[in-house]
Each structure stands twice: as C-alpha cells, then as structure tokens.
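Just scan my protein:

——
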Amino acid sequence: MRNFLLGIVSVISLLIVAGGAYYFGFQKSATNNAQEVSITPTEAEKTPSITTPSTTPTTKPEINVSEQIIAAIKSKNTQALEGYMTSIVQVRLESSGCCGSISKTEAINQLAYLNQAVGWSFDPTNPILVNIAAKAPNYYGNGWIVGVASNEYVISFKLNDQNKIEAYNMASSYKLLFP
C-alpha cells in the first residue's frame, strides 16, 4: 500500500512539474513574440530618399608614429615599420661600418639585429637614456625616439617633418657609446 501511494504521489508531482514547465514555456514564447520587431518596410521606407553628400571633409585619425615605432620594437614586429619609413633610410650600427643610406626594405632587414633584445624601455626619464642623450646628442638626443633593452641593446629613430623614419641607430650595448 505504501509503494502504491508513493507511486501516485510521484506521478502527480511529475504531472505538476511538466504542466508548470509547459505553462511557463508558453508564457515565455508569447512574451518573445510580442517583443519581435517587424522587419517589413513601411511606405516611407519603400520610397527612396535622395540625400546630398556631406561637404565637410572627413579627417583620418592621427596616428602617433612614436607609439607605433615603440610597439613594433617591443613586439619585434619590425615589418610594421616599413610604412613609416622614407624610401631611403640612414642606418648606423655602432662600432661597425654598417650601413649608411639604404632602402627601407634593407633597413627593415637590418632591424633583425635587435632580435635578441628584450625588455625595452622608451621612458625618457630612464637614467640610462638620459646618460646616452648627454654623451651622444647627435644620435640619441633631443628629437630622437630612443629605447634601451634590459640586456643593453639600444636604438634611436629620427622622424622627418612628415613623420617618417629617416634615420635610425643601433648598438648591441649602450656601453659602446661611452668612451
């Protein structure tokens, strides 16, 4: 008798749960149908309207070339710099005879010299960069974007008046710049 009552209670409970789920599911779908937006066009939308083009020029967002250079060096994605270079770039590798005036493609290839560099800092208040600027102002001073890696590599970029890289200098150690 006890099993019989337990079976009846179970069946009734199951019917209540199923009925509740059906009821609430039906309510939810009715609510969703009410919230649907009609996508059929109205008469005003069917008639094409003539709009005159805006005469105000649109300006491209200004790209901060310095930030792009820094990001490319830090990420070692130096190919991204090609668009920011003049067609001929003055490249100097400290303590070597390399490289002089070379094409921007060659200049990009020369940046592979920095592949071993890690932990770049382009902070102008970095004491190493301050010291470098004082010792070699013509190549690492005012007007140059200068960075030093935690393993002593150093690079500097010079932009022309069109914000293009016209020159850069590299060294495997900033200590090469000090006599």
Residues 1-32 form one domain. Residues 51-61 have pLDDT under 50 and may be disordered. The chain is about 40% helix and 20% strand.
